[in-house]
Design a protein that fits this description.
Leucine Aminopeptidase, subunit E, domain 1; 2 domains; 6-stranded mixed sheet; 4-stranded mixed sheet; about 40% helix; about 20% strand; binds adenosine-5-diphosphoribose
């Protein structure tokens, strides 16, 4: 609250503004060249300042009780005031010629001093910007009104707030699923859940003997269904065991294989998991033709992501060799 004429105290008080100069640099760069790249650089800098608990200086209109208290002698800048008086502040907003209402923010005390004085308080960037998570009636925030003024419009704010959210994504890798650094790996198991060959054997070997002990408590798993255990010695914290269909060339095969992916993803979501790796289920011992299996697998995971677009799930399709990788990539390109 600007009320003391001891500026050094005020500046100490504004420690949360340290680092905001990066914002001004990126605003200047964006105003010099309004490229998409420069805009993203600017949004990233504000996003980083927000995550570093950075602050803005914001102009406010204090209630009379607050004014009386803060202009009295006994309170000086930096004091902590405990009072039951209604020391509320209203946000000091701006209305542009087109009638649109804007919030205002300054990145530093120096920027604030460039224009007419007003009451100001420090506010962490996150809580000030979070009001745009719902319709708040403001067009955005004008940053540094008295100089390089950047109109931080609500669409830009929404893009920046989304930078926090885990994004839905599918990637394809060649490798050993037991080595992947994801939250969960999926095991192409058999209905006993007591281990076997192929990826099942590799996972049990890498996870260690405690996995089998936990699997014994699960009393098996039906084809198309999924059950979860810990990851034990794996980098992944969880293993989702699903049982793919043995290929018989029937329509039911595709339905059961589809269910393996959907039920594994649903189980992952239920456990608040946001990154998961799948092997090419049923394409080994269970004889499912690789390309047909890849078509079913991608239909299932893309369909699931479309039905859960707000969730944010990183899906890795882990192919054990280049041949399988090329099949999955070909199917993903619609070949
Ligand atoms: N990482 C990733 N993928 C692997 C790995 C591994 N370490 N090992 C094998 N794979 C691949 C295979 O190359 C194949 O493409 O996993 C795919 C599935 O093959 P299987 O492991 O044979 O699984 P599936 O065809 O579903 O048959 C399941 O086989 O291993 C037994 O106990 C399992 O009885 C069950 C049956």
């Amino acid at each position: 609250m600007q009320g003391s004429n001891d500026k050094s105290t005020l500046k100490e008080q504004y420690a949360g503004l340290v680092g905001n100069e990066q914002i001004i640099e990126k605003i200047d760069a964006f105003k010099a060249n309004k490229s998409r790249e420069n805009l993203l650089f600017l949004l990233e800098v504000i996003h980083n300042r927000m995550n570093d608990d950075g602050q803005f200086l914001i102009p406010v209109i204090p209630s009379q009780a607050a004014l009386d208290l803060f202009t009295s002698e006994e309170v000086k800048a930096g004091d902590t005031v405990k009072s039951d008086a209604n020391l509320h502040f209203r946000l000091n907003t701006l209305e542009t010629a087109d009638g649109k209402k804007w919030l205002v923010a300054f990145t530093s005390y120096k920027e604030y001093e460039k224009g007419e004085a007003s009451s100001i308080i420090t506010q962490d960037i996150r809580s000030y910007i979070n009001i745009f998570n719902k319709d708040c009636g403001y067009e955005g925030i004008i940053i540094n009104t008295w100089s390089t003024k950047f109109f931080f419009i609500k669409d830009f704010i929404k893009i920046m707030l989304n930078m926090d959210k885990p994004q839905n994504h599918i990637s394809f890798v060649v490798g050993d699923i037991t080595k992947l650094e994801v939250e969960a790996i999926v095991n192409a198991a058999n209905s006993t859940l007591l281990g076997g060959g192929g990826v099942d054997g590799a996972i049990h070997k890498a996870a260690g003997p405690k996995l089998l002990l936990e699997c014994m408590t699960l009393h098996g798993c039906k084809t198309g269904e999924a059950k979860i255990t810990k990851g034990y010695n794996l980098k992944a914290k969880h293993i989702i065991h699903t049982v793919g269909p043995r290929y018989h060339g029937k329509t039911e095969d595709a339905m059961l294989l589809y269910a393996c992916y959907i039920n594994s993803l649903d189980l992952a979501k239920k456990n608040n998991i946001h990154s998961i790796a799948f092997p090419a289920i049923s394409t080994g011992d269970y004889g499912y033709p690789a390309r047909e299996a890849a078509v079913v697998a991608l239909k299932a995971v893309i369909g699931w992501l479309n039905s859960n677009e707000e969730y944010g799930m990183e899906i890795v399709m882990c192919c054990y060799n280049e041949e399988m990788y090329n099949i999955f990539m070909g199917v993903s390109r619609g070949e």
